[in-house]
Specification:
The complex is a heterodimer of chains A (about 230) and B (about 900).
Chain A (H helix, E strand, L loop, with lengths): L5 E5 L3 H13 L3 E5 L2 H11 L3 E5 L7 H11 L4 E5 L4 H10 L3 E4 L4 H15 L10 E4 L2 E4 L4 E4 L2 E3 L3 H12 L4 E3 H8 L8 H15 L9 E4 L3 E4 L5
Parallel strand pairs in A: 1-2, 1-3, 3-4, 4-5
Antiparallel strand pairs in A: 6-7, 7-8, 8-9, 10-12, 11-12
Helix pairs in contact in A: 3-4, 6-8
Chain B lengths: L7 H16 L3 E6 L6 H14 L4 E5 L6 H5 L5 E2 L3 E5 L2 E5 L2 H7 L3 E4 L15 H10 L3 E7 L7 H8 L9 H5 L3 E5 L3 H9 L7 H10 L2 H29 L11 E5 L6 H15 L2 E9 L7 H16 L3 E7 L2 H11 L4 E5 L5 H7 L2 H8 L4 E5 L12 H4 L5 H21 L5 H18 L2 H19 L12 H49 L3 H16 L1 E8 L5 E3 L11 H13 L3 E2 L11 E7 L2 E10 L8 H67 L6 H33 L7 E3 L1 H11 L1 H4 L4 E4 L7 E3 L1 H17 L7 E7 L3 E8 L27 H13 L3 E6 L5 E8 L10 H4 L1
Parallel strand pairs in B: 1-7, 1-8, 2-3, 2-6, 6-7, 9-10, 9-12, 10-11, 12-13, 20-22
Antiparallel strand pairs in B: 4-5, 14-15, 14-18, 16-17, 17-18, 19-21, 22-23, 23-25, 24-25
Helix pairs in contact in B: 13-15, 17-18, 17-19, 18-19, 18-20, 19-20, 20-21, 20-23, 21-23, 23-24, 24-28, 25-27, 27-28
The chains are: A alpha/beta (about 230), B alpha/beta (about 900).
């Protein structure tokens, strides 16, 4: 059976590697293991993996440093694995160019979903290649007509609400940091005005979600940003 | 009569004294009757023996005096180099105390215990050096001759006619752990003397003929033997007492000896000491200050202090009494102390004085009752130097002379003017008035001059023939006589009253000053304030500059505070203070130890040790401290020490309590956490091992059940760890509350989504108003609050029961209520459930950490969290988040795009 993709795992803890090896290989991913950042970087250069799983707490180098180095020459999707103590580093890691993050402990289902999302987004689509219509369950967005429907019901959005929704939907399943969204929707001078994002997100939820207190599509990643609900493949 | 048993206090004192001695070095004295008996020889022989046994022994100082046999014994022993002192152009070898302390051997040989050190040494006497060695735990071998013993000093002088100035307090001999008598019959000694084997210092050469007479040697030998025997008997007594033999508790004798500034007192003291030793009795040296006496001069006070010190050195207790009459005061004190014998000096003053003023001795004897009175002759040859009366008498100010002359002149004028109308006796009265007035203003001599002038003026102006000193009628001579005596007595009495008033005022002032100090100190709780107060009070009371030195953390003495009253302390002064601190004895100016210092240093001794050192430097260089001042100064310093000790104890107790509390909290927290961690771990471990072992036999549903359990429990573990981490971070201040204005719904949404699986079966009632304002809070922390509260609500209520979340907006806060329909909170636990290690008694589940982190987070937000039971059943946790400050402005969308 052919492998779905090659995954480079940079992780110093043996038990963690064992768990990931079993999980990923059973899902038909090929796995390259590296114990140190140095080894990981050289493996990334020589084996050109499709995706990198990177533990932030490595013995020989700061995980953020690894991301920086990788990003100098590679656009390979990076999923950061962090422990609680590195919580503050998550945003930095995302800003440095990581694609997603997982906090230990995490379930295998969560991990596999993230990997699928990352792989899907790995190939950037040009404007005209993009789907003209996005659907998720009964929510559909017609990018050409700029129309949003929930089932048969059309939902009227303000321009900003629409832009906000589009940014999240285009990256569906991936976590978008506050700064990124603010820059994309409001412009670079707004990247610190988190409350704008929060207020508009609240409005958007009220229009799109059935129960805005228990959002289904527009998920909050506390302290980091937002994520449009990943597809259930 | 019941035999007197040792009382417990006494035994305790003994035990404590014993303990103190154990920490000290051992003192062995080689005791001899005269020079040349072989003390040094014996001592060095013993030292060699110790060396052979492997004892760390050094020779501090030993004088073989050119004797070959003795010098031979020095071989192989480590000899400390001596300190060279140049004194009056001569180089003098001295024992180097500092080198000895530095070398710190276990045993040291120090010859000639009674030796007087060269001026400029730390101590005046070598035995003080030895005392310091012993105090640091170094054992000492030393030698001493009987003639050097303080108590026998006078007898030796009587026997040999040689004045021995180098003396050793008997108490020092008594503290020796071992005394070895080196005995040599007089004939043998004389033989050795002939052979030139006895070293005699040059200065004693003159006395040699007198000293080394056979009769003397026999007498000295007897003294030495007797003294040793006394000491042996004492040991026997101690031994028997320790073994609990009762008969040795005789009806206790107590001897009291009267001490005065008179140099004859020395002899009385020595006699008392001998008698006390003979009777194994306690003895007390007492000085009585009678009000009727004229204030003693400074010189007298110094002599008195010397005598009292001598008595103390000889082992006496000392006391100073004050009262109207010497005899009464003495006898009442004696009765109070159960004194059985009183020793007083034979009166040396002329008999008429007794006739006139009464004899204190007579009164004592008559009033003594059952007490025996011993009247002892003072030493006829008083070799002490009498102070020069003129130099010691206080300066008489010229104003006083004006007073005396002016008073007489005024009296004369007044009498002259009124004479025509008055009798001659009235005139005499006017003069007496003048003398009384003079006496109230002047000292002794001007008053006497006024008296004489008055008599002369009376004669000149009012006794015929007028304006001559000639007297017509012989009867007037009697008038003059009577007038003089009356005037003299009146002036003396007036003077005495005044001096008493001055003295009592001074005493009162000192007492008041002391009282003021202690009252002010009693209120203080800070060390710094105590230093300040003491500095001020002592400085004011003693007219000097004060420095308080205390040990810092490194054990170095440092001056506490620089105040205007503090004097500069250089390295040398610091050394003196250090010595005082280490040895717990006063030193410096006006003392026997390091008298070269510019200030006097007293240790602040409290029950738990030395608190520090107080240094006092007199304002003017000549202003020395009289013993009376010293006594008061000691009281001041003691007050300070006690206050400091109190503060220290209070602080220690407080710290100890805090430590204990913190320890309790930590222990409770740890046990709570470890319990909370262990439960899910046990479940995970158990489930996993079942899966591993019985993989083949388990059916699918069982496998799933076990796997689901493992999954849930790891969730729980993760939550607990997160809570513990956050709690400690918040409490240690590692987490900063990062408040951002945001909608509350968002965070509730996150929590509800996370718990979606477990909330499936639960009716959830959300009451969130649409127009809820933005609230400033820390996203991550508040997420945890909601997560914990929801978690608790899920865990402590039966499955399927509803959970309600309601948010209401108020003026400056939002109120969040999370309510369930569970069993509610046990009565009186509404407050305590937020404690770090609380756990509900009913469920036994560790909810404590979860709720206490909520409590900590809400508090950090400036809010409040509390628990209530609902009237209709179930519990509500309510918390308020304040809305402080202004929310950030939000531009309407149109303007944005």
């Amino acid at each position: 059976m052919e492998n779905l993709a090659t995954i480079l795992l940079i992780e110093d803890e043996r038990q963690m590697r064992r768990f990931l090896r079993v999980t990923l290989q059973s899902e038909r991913y090929a796995l390259i293991e590296a114990e140190t950042a140095a080894e990981g970087l050289s493996q990334a250069a020589t084996r050109s993996p499709d995706i990198v799983l990177l533990d932030l707490g490595l013995p020989d180098m700061d995980g953020l440093e690894v991301i920086k180095k990788l990003r100098e020459w590679s656009a390979v999707p990076i999923i950061v694995i962090s422990a609680r103590e590195q919580e503050g580093d998550k945003i930095k890691a995302l800003d440095e160019g990581a694609d997603d993050y997982l906090t230990k402990p995490f379930g295998s289902g969560e991990l596999l979903a993230r990997i699928r999302v990352a792989l899907r987004h790995a190939v950037p689509k040009s404007q005209d290649q993009r789907d003209a219509i996005f659907t998720a369950e009964d929510l559909s967005i017609d990018f050409l007509k700029r129309q949003v429907h929930r089932g048969d019901r059309e939902i009227h959005l303000t321009p900003i609400e629409y832009r906000l929704l589009v940014v999240l939907v285009r990256n569906a399943g991936r976590v978008m940091t506050h700064r990124y969204i603010l820059k994309e929707v409001w412009g670079p001078s707004y990247i610190e005005q988190t409350h704008y994002l929060r207020v508009f997100m609240n409005q958007l939820r009220k229009k799109i979600e059935t129960d805005s207190a228990r959002p289904h599509f527009l998920l909050n990643e506390p302290g980091i940003g937002y994520r449009f609900k990943p597809d259930l493949d | 009569m019941e035999p007197k048993r040792p009382d417990p206090d006494e035994l305790l004192d003994q035990a404590m004294a014993e303990e103190e001695r154990l920490s000290q070095g051992k003192l062995k004295i080689f005791f001899g009757a005269a020079p040349g008996v072989g003390k040094t020889y014996a001592m060095l022989a013993a030292a060699q023996k110790q060396r052979e046994e492997g004892v760390d022994i050094v020779v501090g100082i030993a004088e073989p005096h050119g004797r070959k046999e003795t010098a031979a014994f020095l071989e192989g022993l480590e000899i400390l180099p001596c300190r060279m002192h140049s004194y009056r152009g001569r180089e003098i070898r001295e024992f180097d105390l500092d080198a000895a302390l530095l070398r710190n051997p276990s045993l040291i040989v120090v010859d000639e215990l009674a030796h007087t050190n060269v001026p400029g040494s730390r101590h005046k006497k070598r035995w003080q050096d030895v005392q310091e060695l012993l105090a640091t735990g170094i054992s000492v071998y030393t030698t001493v001759n009987v003639q050097h013993l303080e108590s026998l000093n006078d007898i030796v002088q009587q026997i040999t006619g040689v004045v021995v100035r180098e003396t050793l307090p008997d108490s020092f001999l008594d503290r020796a752990d071992e005394i070895e008598l080196i005995d040599l019959p007089p004939d043998d000694l004389l033989q050795r003397l002939k052979e030139g084997k006895v070293y005699i210092p040059d200065q004693v050469e003159r006395a040699r003929e007198n000293f080394f007479r056979k009769g003397n040697l026999i007498a000295l030998r007897e003294l030495a033997l007797r003294r040793t025997a006394e000491r042996v008997e004492e040991q026997m007594v101690c031994y028997r007492r320790d073994k609990g033999v009762q008969e040795i508790w005789p009806a206790s004798e107590r001897i009291l000896v009267c001490v005065s500034p008179n140099p004859r007192s020395i002899r009385l003291i020595r006699a008392a000491r001998r008698m006390a030793a003979g009777l194994r009795a306690e003895w007390i040296a007492v000085h009585v200050e009678a009000h009727a006496q004229i204030k003693p001069s400074d010189h007298d006070l110094k002599l008195l202090a010397d005598h009292m010190r001598l008595a103390e050195n000889l082992g006496a207790k000392t006391a100073t009494l004050t009262g109207q009459k010497v005899s009464e005061e003495l006898l009442s004190y004696a009765r109070q102390c159960n004194v059985t014998k009183i020793i007083v000096g034979k009166p040396m003053h002329p008999r008429w004085k007794d006739r006139l003023f009464g004899s204190p001795l007579d009164e004592i004897i008559r009033g003594s009752g059952s007490i025996d009175i011993y009247v002892i002759t003072g030493d006829a040859a008083e070799n002490s130097i009498k102070p020069d009366a003129r130099t010691s008498s206080p300066n008489i100010k010229s104003r006083e002379w004006y007073w005396s002359i002016g008073a007489v002149a005024l009296s004369t004028v007044v009498a002259r003017l009124t004479f025509p109308y008055l009798d001659r006796t009235d005139v005499a009265m006017i003069y007496l008035l003048g003398i009384v007035v003079t006496s109230t203003r002047t000292s002794r001599w001007p008053a006497l001059v006024a008296t004489l002038l008055s008599v002369a003026a009376f004669d000149f102006f009012f006794v015929p023939p007028f304006f001559t000193f000639a007297v017509s009628d012989i009867r007037f001579l009697a008038t003059f006589g009577v007038m003089f005596v009356v005037a003299y007595v009146i002036s003396r009495l007036t003077l005495q009253i005044r001096e008493q008033a001055v003295a009592s005022r001074k005493r009162e002032m000192s007492t008041a000053a002391l009282y003021a100090l202690s009252r002010e100190l009693a209120r203080e709780r800070k060390k710094e304030r105590i230093y300040e107060i003491s500095l001020r009070h002592i400085g004011e009371a003693f007219k000097g500059q004060i420095a308080i030195l205390v040990a810092n953390e490194q054990g170095e003495l440092v001056v506490t505070r620089k105040l205007p009253l503090t004097f500069d302390i250089d390295q040398k002064e610091l050394g003196v203070a250090r010595w005082v601190f280490d040895n717990r004895q006063s030193a410096g100016l006006d003392t026997d130890t390091l008298p070269g210092a510019k200030a006097l240093y007293l240790p602040m001794v409290a029950s738990s040790g030395v608190m520090g050192v107080v240094g006092i430097s007199p304002q003017n260089a000549t202003g020395r401290f009289v013993p009376e001042d010293l006594h008061f100064l000691e009281s001041f310093v003691n007050q300070t020490a006690m206050a400091l000790e109190r503060v220290m104890h209070a602080k220690e107790a407080h710290d100890e309590r805090l430590r204990a509390e913190a320890q309790n909290v930590r222990n409770a927290f740890l046990s709570s956490v470890s319990h909370d961690l262990r439960t899910p771990l046990a479940v995970v471990a158990g489930a996993a091992s079942t899966l591993l072992q019985k993989d083949g036999t388990l059916d699918v549903s069982d496998r799933l059940e076990l796997l689901r359990t493992i999954h849930e429990e790891t969730d729980r573990l993760e939550r607990i760890i997160r809570n513990v981490l956050n709690l400690t971070r918040i409490e240690t201040g590692a987490i900063k509350v990062n408040k951002e204005w945001q909608p509350l719904e968002e965070i509730i949404g996150v929590v509800l989504n996370r718990l979606a699986e477990r909330l499936k079966e639960r009716p959830l009632d959300l009451k969130i108003p649409n127009d809820l304002p933005l609230v400033p809070f820390d996203t991550l922390l508040m997420e945890q609050v909601f997560a914990n509260l929801m978690e608790n609500a899920l865990r402590h209520t039966p499955p399927g029961s509803p959970i309600e979340i309601a948010i209401t907006s108020h003026d400056s806060a939002v109120l969040i209520e999370i309510a369930d329909r569970g069993p509610g909170i046990p009565v009186r636990e509404e407050e305590t459930i937020f404690n770090k290690f609380a756990r509900s008694k009913d469920t036994g589940m560790g909810s404590g950490i979860g709720l206490s982190i909520c409590h900590a987070i809400i508090e950090a937000h400036g809010g409040r969290i509390w628990a209530e039971n609902r009237p209709s059943g179930g519990a509500t946790i309510k918390f308020l988040i304040p809305i402080e400050g202004t929310p950030p402005s939000l531009l309407p969308e149109k303007e944005l795009s």
